[in-house]
Amino acid sequence: MSLKAISAQDAASLDKDLMEIGGWSLDQLMELAGLSVSQAVYRVHPPSSGKNVLVVCGPGNNGGDGLVAARHLAQYGYNPSVYYPKQGKNELYERLKIQLQNLDVPFVPDFTEALKSTHFIVDAIFGFSFGGPLRDPFPSIISQMESASVPVLSVDAPSSWDISGGPPKEGPGSKFMPQALISLTAPKPCVKYYKGRHFVGGRFLTKSIVDKYRLDFPSYQGIDQVVEVGVDAEGRL
């Protein structure tokens, strides 16, 4: 099963519609996105496979999704830690940090050192709004994730990838192929370059939104917030 991809512009417009017309707040959307990420982690890397999860967060909403995911992972029995070198200015991110601190989830100062003891990485650095170029410290971080010996799950797109064009031709991220990817709301065009386990999280979408953006709505089962789908999006973009 493959799903129709949505452009970065339409993804931004869809989020705007959800908040301005649909009655959703940014907090709610980020909570559902982070919950979806945490469920995808549980699917591909249950606690029995290793409880140490390093969540790498960028300065935008993708990083906020990672902070939410880290909280849920702590509640599931994992031992998450967070690397968050550049915090965004929205006060929502500060509240998400406080929630994690209240659960004794550590914020680590050194990614390279934290990498030595982790069993799994969540790449929540850049989402569908990424346009490059990479700025410090992220080139080094992405290069280390690229060569890491532990599995990586990327949120919405592998960080450093162009949302339409896929991985960069050279430099950090050019060979970055995480073991798992979760697309939020709908796949982005770069999914056609991806090879690995692919999940979608967007169970909150209404029929009017699905129809407006001509999306394919997968069949979520039970209480699941994610569904595993194929990555063959050829002819569907």
TrEMBL record:
<keyword id="KW-0547">Nucleotide-binding</keyword>
<keyword id="KW-0630">Potassium</keyword>
<feature type="binding site">
    <location>
        <position position="62"/>
    </location>
    <ligand>
        <name>K(+)</name>
    </ligand>
</feature>
<comment type="function">
    <text>Catalyzes the epimerization of the S- and R-forms of NAD(P)HX, a damaged form of NAD(P)H that is a result of enzymatic or heat-dependent hydration. This is a prerequisite for the S-specific NAD(P)H-hydrate dehydratase to allow the repair of both epimers of NAD(P)HX.</text>
</comment>
<comment type="similarity">
    <text>Belongs to the NnrE/AIBP family.</text>
</comment>
<dbReference type="InterPro" id="IPR004443">
    <property type="entry name" value="YjeF_N_dom"/>
</dbReference>
<feature type="binding site">
    <location>
        <begin position="61"/>
        <end position="65"/>
    </location>
    <ligand>
        <name>(6S)-NADPHX</name>
    </ligand>
</feature>
<feature type="binding site">
    <location>
        <position position="159"/>
    </location>
    <ligand>
        <name>K(+)</name>
    </ligand>
</feature>
<dbReference type="GO" id="GO:0052856">
    <property type="term" value="F:NAD(P)HX epimerase activity"/>
</dbReference>
<dbReference type="InterPro" id="IPR036652">
    <property type="entry name" value="YjeF_N_dom_sf"/>
</dbReference>
<dbReference type="GO" id="GO:0000166">
    <property type="term" value="F:nucleotide binding"/>
</dbReference>
<feature type="domain" description="YjeF N-terminal">
    <location>
        <begin position="11"/>
        <end position="217"/>
    </location>
</feature>
<feature type="binding site">
    <location>
        <begin position="127"/>
        <end position="133"/>
    </location>
    <ligand>
        <name>(6S)-NADPHX</name>
    </ligand>
</feature>
<keyword id="KW-0479">Metal-binding</keyword>
<keyword id="KW-0520">NAD</keyword>
<keyword id="KW-0413">Isomerase</keyword>
<protein>
    <recommendedName>
        <fullName>NAD(P)H-hydrate epimerase</fullName>
        <ecNumber>5.1.99.6</ecNumber>
    </recommendedName>
</protein>
<keyword id="KW-0963">Cytoplasm</keyword>
<keyword id="KW-0496">Mitochondrion</keyword>
<feature type="binding site">
    <location>
        <position position="123"/>
    </location>
    <ligand>
        <name>K(+)</name>
    </ligand>
</feature>
<feature type="binding site">
    <location>
        <position position="156"/>
    </location>
    <ligand>
        <name>(6S)-NADPHX</name>
    </ligand>
</feature>
<dbReference type="Pfam" id="PF03853">
    <property type="entry name" value="YjeF_N"/>
</dbReference>
<dbReference type="GO" id="GO:0005739">
    <property type="term" value="C:mitochondrion"/>
</dbReference>
<keyword id="KW-0521">NADP</keyword>
<dbReference type="InterPro" id="IPR032976">
    <property type="entry name" value="YJEFN_prot_NAXE-like"/>
</dbReference>
<dbReference type="GO" id="GO:0046872">
    <property type="term" value="F:metal ion binding"/>
</dbReference>
